[in-house]
Amino acid sequence: MQIPDPNRIHRFWPKKFQMKRLSKIVTERLNQDCIQGAVSGELANEVSKRLKSEEMRDALVRLLKHYQHKADIPVDDEETIKNKLQTIIDIKVCEDKNLSTVLVYEGKVVPNSECKKSAYFVESELSQQNKSTKDYILYINQEINVEGYELTKTLIALLNRVLGGVDIMLFNAIWSMNLSKISEFLNDKNIIHSDYAEIASSIFPELGTEIPKDLHFLLNNGFGEFYEGEYVGFEVYDPDLEETKSDYVEYSPMYVYAKIVKKVKVETDEEFATFSINIGEDDLKEVYFFKIYKFHRTRKSTSRTLELSDKMNEDDLDGSSQDIETILLGIRKTLIKAWKLPEKERKAVLKRLILLWHPDKNLHNQKMATEITQKIFMYVKRLNNGLSLDELDETDYGHTSSSSRNYNSDDDSYRSFYKNMYSRGRSYAKNFKHYWSDESCGHHHSWTRTEPRPMPDHAVRWLRQAVSDLKAAELFQQNIGDDFHNWVCYKCQQAAEKALKAVWYTIDGNNVTHAHNLYLVARELPYDNLKTLALELQNMIGDHTRMRYPDTLSYPQIPNDVYNKNHSQKGCEIARKIVNGASEIINSNDSRGAKKQRIA
Questions:
Q1: Quick one: 210 and 310 in the same domain?
Q2: Are 25 and 104 in contact (CB under 8 A)?
Q3: N or C: which end of the chain has fewer CB within 10 A?
Q4: Are residues 294 and 202 in the same domain?
Q5: How far, in Å, CA of 583 to CA of 500, rounded?
Q6: Is residue 15 part of a domain?
Q7: Whether residue 182 sits in one domain with residue 88
Q8: Is the peptide bond before 556 cis (omega within 30 degrees of 0)?
Q9: What is the Cα–Cα distance from 493 to 515, expressed in whole angstroms?
């Protein structure tokens, strides 16, 4: 026989016999003597100054956004945040030597209900009369410890009322902290800056800009939280994740600057979270979280900029403060989810885990990192063999060496992948160490805007297409009669434009423009022969739109009418000279050991 819950059965009683919660019929209010005796003393001024300081207000905004993000609720707009901060600034702080409250029932004080208080807040009478504003008065006992638990507990309740939510543990930590240390502490906890958008826009290049290869070490492989509006690195391409490799060139990984728009899918036990990101010109993509990367931030800097971390353990996003059993459990859960995805996505997750725990990037705990790496290899082999990772006995697999060179696996299908990840991790660790020891290094992201950035991979890529366009033009020109020469000329223009831009990528990718005028593209190149050829071809064929659109010509002519065999033949000759010249420049500057592009 099921016994009814006595706490619920009373609901079925007649209303007049139903029990009522004490808080519904009795209210707590400040003792009238305390209201009259409260003053603005030294202690109250200290609390008020601390609560309303710029450092604390900035921290509270960061904590608010952090709370809203974790709770998956909309982040306040700037106007709402401004109003909330003004409410905090308007809080009046008073002190009393005998602070106490009483209980009131039906308008009368309950006898013997007085209770001493360390701190207590009320809504001001003016605020009660005007519901459009909320003003509060905070009363504190003159004997209270400013950093004590009772005051902190009251402040958290007050701030929850004003802000709508705040992380209790983090506020407890920062309230008793030196104000100058708060920002650094929140940076350590990866709490986003309150004015992040303003800071980031002044530091990072335009969205969609490629992150240069020598800055890839700034990408944080840890599995952290992402915030709306946060600037991140987005993985566009990684040759080590591809099943087939290019026959033309050994491409490097490619990442671009992107910005988080919103979280689309929440992570579950079965699936990874996905995010909508903006990669420039409002080009939105929905991607798995393991395709986007945070950037390292400094722990030393007292400025409000975003910089590099001084630790080699990915800003503690690896969970290295946890015990190894907890870390390995998290890795197993991650890999189990990853192995439900296609091979390319599996490797993307695996890559991050391997780079995260690369021994050379974890010099503070190299032995544990090496052991974890070897466990990852073992987990992958089991998954590839169709074996489970659930209830795995870690002690069955022996001891692993602490040497960072013990990075081999007997899994043939992943041996090359592991080897490449080891080399990449060592390179990142070396760059990391060099950056931190070189005091002359400025902020890398803003540096990408002004310093020359040769991009040899892009140079070869654009040259390949230039060669393809030229071959198409020549083939077409040899097999047509009196018509269609405008299309041959257009293909020549395209081949020349791409070859010239390939040369720019060899010199400085920052100078590659969206212009199509051949002379404008070539004008600043340090190669007079290319500038002369570009001008000659441009003058002969005209603007790139002239070969396609009737409205660029005098009525009733169309492009097919005004271009003949002489134009197309001469165009192919000049375009070939430009492409051959570009090929010589690019191949002579190719020091990466990549396969050179040949003109057939």
A1: yes
A2: no
A3: N
A4: yes
A5: 10
A6: no
A7: yes
A8: yes
A9: 12
Region for 281 from its dihedrals, namely left if φ exceeds 0, alpha if ψ lies in -120 to 50, beta otherwise: left
Task: Specify whether 67 is located in the same domain as 173.
Answer: yes
Provide the CATH number for the domain around residue 489.
Answer: 1.20.120.330
Q: Could you give the CA distance from residue 52 to residue 88 in angstroms, rounded to a whole number?
A: 7
* 386 within domain boundaries: yes
**Cβ proximity of 597 and 250 under 8 Å:** no
Rounded Cα gap, residues 497 and 160, in angstroms = 60
156/210 same-domain check: no
Residue 406 has which token pair? 């013990």
Q: What angle do CA 523, 528, 529 make, to 5 degrees?
A: 115
**Do 307 and 213 fall within a single domain?**
yes
Q: pLDDT tier at 132 (50, 70, 90 boundaries)?
A: low
- Cα distances from 41 to residues 46, 92, 119, in angstroms, run 9, 12, 15
Q: Which residues of 456-466 are buried (b: 16+ CB within 10 A; e: fewer)?
A: bbbbbbbbbeb
Quote the CA–CA distance of 589 and 600 in Å, as a whole number. 20
Answer whether residue 4 is part of any domain. no
Among 153, 188, 223, which residue terminates a domain?
188
39: which DSSP letter? B
Tell me the mean pLDDT in the region 50-56: 90
State how far the Cα of 385 lies from the Cα of 402, in Å rounded to an integer. Answer: 27
Give 378's Cβ-side CA count (13 Å radius): 18
Q: Is 96 helix (H, G, I), strand (E, B) or coil?
A: strand
Q: Is 217 or 225 the better-scoring residue by pLDDT? A: 217
Please write the tens of the pLDDT for every residue from 302-333.
333 333 333 444 544 455 557 889 999 999 99
In a domain, 564, yes or no: yes
Q: Quote the number of domains for the chain.
A: 4
Whether residues 254 and 377 fall in one domain: no
pLDDT digits (tens, 9 = 90+) for 419-455: 999 999 998 888 877 766 655 555 555 555 567 888 8
119's enclosing H/E stretch is strand 119-123
pLDDT in tens, 376-433: 999 999 999 999 987 666 554 444 444 445 555 566 678 889 999 999 999 888 887 7
Locate tokens 């209210």: which residue?
27
Question: Which residue, of 266, 282, 315, is where some domain finishes?
Answer: 315
Contacts of 66 (CB under 8 A, 6+ apart): 167, 170, 191, 192, 227
- Whole-model pTM: value is 0.65
Contacts 24+ apart (CB under 8 A), 194-202: 194/58, 194/59, 194/61, 194/62, 194/65, 195/58, 195/304, 196/227, 196/229, 196/230, 197/229, 199/304, 199/305, 199/306, 200/229, 200/230, 200/231, 200/306, 202/446
Separation CA 239–CA 253 (nearest Å):
6
Question: Which has more confidence, 108 or 300?
Answer: 108
Measure the CA–CA gap between 220 and 165, rounded to whole angstroms. 29
Name the 3-class secondary structure at 493.
Answer: helix
Q: Residue 236: what residue type? A: V
Sheet strand arrangement including 92-96? 92-96, 136-141, 119-123
Helix (H) / strand (E) element for 503: namely helix 485-507
> In the numeric block, which tokens belong to residue 554?
């005098």
Give the domain extent around 534.
456-589
